[in-house]
Write a structure and sequence with these properties.
heterodimer; A: 119 residues; mainly alpha; 2 domains; 2 strands; flat; B: Four Helix Bundle (Hemerythrin (Met), subunit A); two-stranded antiparallel ribbon; 5 helices
Chain lengths: 119, 212
């Protein structure tokens, strides 16, 4: 990957060139188009006979594509790939807590609703 | 990897134990706290998803007891356009930053202007969407969907608006030639905030608009 070096205090890091940014932008655009296309062919106006076969994979595929987009922006546009690992730690640690909060609350509420129904 | 030396530093103003600029460390810490802030809002939306007793609903039509018919309320095509522009704005802001670091005022002002345009379009799209929803009968207190939807997307929209104001300030400074390469960190901090706002939308868009 081509890069030009910039300095931030004592830490040297190389930010990618415009061509790399453009390639990442193109991938992000394609992934968004795929997300919407997947929705259209599964639940939207263009849903055909194959829709029921796609439905079990719909949410995992969407989450996978979103995760890929998230990682691309964080790595290339937010420069976590090149910058100090301390920044990655400061971002990823609360991000992990955030993910645990989301999953934990969903499990808790699902259990609560199940318990409320069954007594 | 070909590397081209860039002789202008970001301008570390004082020595730090980490060797990193404290301002950059501060913006990353702020972004970390924002991750948890949005996690609570996304959790709130997800745990209340599908639990509204009355419509309008996001993806299903609904007929009220009085016989009034409501269409599914979400409009995917318009929001997809807003999403695409927000993603492009992330590309534009890194190109503006690259221009600032090279000392190219033309690139800085041009790409930053494009970023601001995309941000304003996104906020405008959200204002239109909210107004349309209210006219369709969905308010903050109509049902659980309305409450959690407006809270989540409203807070995100507020963040975008703050980002637009921040970038607009830097655009004016850039236009006056007050962002030399030695001060490009000022733009880098705003760009990091802008990218964060973008990655939050990357999560919100499928969760709210695409997953039924």
């Amino acid at each position: 990957m081509e890069a030009h070096a910039t300095t931030s205090g004592h830490q040297e890091h190389a930010h990618p060139r415009a061509a790399v940014y453009a390639k990442v932008g193109l991938i992000l655009f394609v992934l968004t188009a795929l997300e919407v296309g997947l929705y259209e062919f599964t639940y939207g106006e263009h849903a055909g006979p194959t829709a029921s076969a796609i439905q079990p994979f719909f949410v995992p595929l969407l989450l996978l594509m979103s995760a890929a987009k998230f990682a691309l922006v964080a790595m290339f546009y937010m420069h976590l790939k090149q910058d100090s690992k301390l920044f990655t730690g400061i971002f990823v640690f609360p991000l992990t807590i955030a993910a645990v909060i989301i999953v934990g609350l969903m499990i808790l509420m699902a259990y609560h609703m199940w318990f409320a129904r069954t007594g | 990897m070909t590397a081209v030396a860039h002789d202008v530093p970001h301008g570390l103003e004082h020595a730090t134990a980490t060797g990193l600029d404290s301002r950059k460390l501060a913006i990353w810490t702020f972004i970390g706290s924002e991750c948890m802030f949005f996690a609570t809002l996304i959790s709130n939306y997800l745990v209340n998803k599908g639990r509204s007793l009355v419509g309008p609903f996001p993806h299903e039509p609904w007929t009220s007891p009085s016989g009034e018919h409501f269409k599914p309320i979400l409009e995917i095509p318009l929001v997809t356009l807003g999403t695409a522009l927000l993603l492009f704005s992330s590309l534009f802001v890194v190109l503006a930053l690259s221009g600032a670091q090279r000392g190219s005022r033309k690139a800085l002002v041009g790409w930053l202007g494009a970023t601001i345009f995309c941000g304003i379009f996104f906020v405008g799209m959200q204002v239109y969407e909210f107004t349309h929803f209210v006219h369709e009968g969905l308010t903050l207190k109509t049902n659980l969907f309305g409450a959690s939807f407006y809270t989540l997307t409203g807070f995100h929209g507020t963040h975008v608006t703050i980002g637009v104001i921040w970038l607009l300030t830097l655009w004016i400074l850039g236009l006056r030639g007050k962002i030399p390469p030695s001060k490009s960190l000022n733009l880098e901090m705003a760009a990091l905030y802008w990218h964060f706002v973008d990655v939050v939308w990357i999560i919100i868009f499928p969760v709210v608009y695409l997953i039924k």
